[in-house]
Protein 1
Amino acid sequence: MSVWGDIMQFRLKDLLAKDQTVIVNEQLDVSKLFSNRQDVIKTGPLHINLTLTPVGEEVEVKGNLEIDMELACSRCLEPTHTHSIIPFAEQFRPASSEEISEDEDEEENDVVLITDDRLDLTPYVEEYVQLFMPFAPLCKEDCEGLCPQCGSNRNEQSCQCSNERIDPRLEALKDFFKE
């Protein structure tokens, strides 16, 4: 599912024929890309800075993707701001008829084969953005999180809940030595 139109689409033959570097400097809204994620509170625009350079029979795409996001802290669920700079590097090449008939799942080569003349960078940019999302964002390094018993935020207040954990398999033995 692409959230953008055809801004990121290029004709591969034109890129290879011109033998010139093409610069993509776009700012795109990616809020729809994260609409089903509850951990993403708000996203800023995605800044795309890429250069498409023909190298022989391949087009090399390199650059950075930058985005500001407001995510839920993985421990206390408070909003936390994150700025991500994502390095982007891919190589694309028109697929020959022999390569199309071969198994495309072989990973011996890092070059992406394009079966038609249209190079659409959108799915690759979306994949990079989603793969480079922080796995467990924190509001601060020493975030104490939520109390598992009463749910209060331990960063704001301390609760009187017991922190003693008993293995449920041994819980019947806790009163064994009490008289």
Protein 2
Amino acid sequence: MTRRLPLRDPEAPGELLLYRLGQLYATAGTTVVRVCEGEFGITRREWRMIGWLAEAGPMQPSELALRADLDRARTSRAISSLVAKSLVTRSTHAGDRRLAMVSLNTRGKTLHAQLMPRVVAINRALLDVLSDVDIHSLDRLLTTLQVQAATLLADTDWPKVQRRRGRRAAD
């Protein structure tokens, strides 16, 4: 008799992979939120932007939206907030104002240098319960699942959702 694998054949919401990953994200992410908001005065979304800008350097807002996996409207609001907090600089091309570039300024780089080690420490503490072999396996499995999720998304014809109205988009 084969043993039931709850993740493969869930019988309750708590056994769904996405539910379990969401719980992990919410629980572990709360620690990051507390550090970001409580100590540095930025949101987790703003931290995501700062992290990408620190890693990749100046870029157009559309590229930042892609890297941060956010829509352009949320990205624009986060960039505006970071500009208001004097952490990033937004510059436009003299000949075409649509060609904007976003970059970390000195304050943003300093914040990143202070916050990144804190987030890395949270990451390490979370993984401390796993062996090096487990961490390697987890990394490989997450990559495999990400590829599969992207394939499923590309191969489906499910309707898009109009989030503002909470219903399906018109065909």
Protein 3
Amino acid sequence: MILLVTGMVAACGGTPTPNEATSTKNTPTEVAPRAVAVKQAHGIPMGSFDELEYLFHLDTDTTYIINFWATWCKPCVAELPYFEQLTAAYADQPVKVRLISLDFPKQIESRLLPFIEKNQLQSEVWVLDDPDANSWIDKVSPQWSGAIPATVVYRRDQRGFWEQSFESYEELNTIVKPFIKN
């Protein structure tokens, strides 16, 4: 976890800073396999990578955009409006944007919920609570150094990974479009 946090802090330009924010509109639609019970923390689904891994392997006609981020990561926060634009632009299509927060679980109530409320996030927000980053980073993508922001886009057997900050909605939408079933 230290490697992941160090990499994230280095990639995001600093140490976590206090943030303003409050509440969530979070409506996950797929359910975890019966063997996995996803916990809720203040209405936000939360779990270890093993508990959330199924989110990366759903075999449906839906295009999934999964973004790893944190409230203290400036590039992550800067690109969030583009993910929100995707959520709105594809609201009538089988497209799901999931924002996987790497905020510390102890800060859900004090930082994450206020951030979600202040920014009126409409995309699904999940919390990854797994200190053993070395065990799951490669499962997300072997190319991932652990820095955030990082994004996975997939539909069925099509999969792409981007370890970068998107500079515009158009840039993000350009990588998503090929995954959307026409």
Protein 4
Amino acid sequence: MFAKLLTMLLALGLMAGLLLVNRQRMYETVGERVRLHDEVERLKRRMQELKVRVAEATEPAEINDMISENKDDWKAIQVIRKRVTMANTRNKDVVGR
């Protein structure tokens, strides 16, 4: 009888300990998520500030002057409108088929 009671107390103690460990890991995970979320928000704000600084530092007239000075360095991007179709499975150039 004493051995059964001792075994049951040890089992309950072990389960309580494991429950505490699991809860602590959950708190650490939530804390890490909060820290990462704050860092992402800080980086988004920094990116927005940099976009504003770039927009303030560049004016269309200045850009046009730079382009007119070095026309060879500034080439237009050609947009080619091509119809997108399904990849041919017999084509060996297609990766992943």
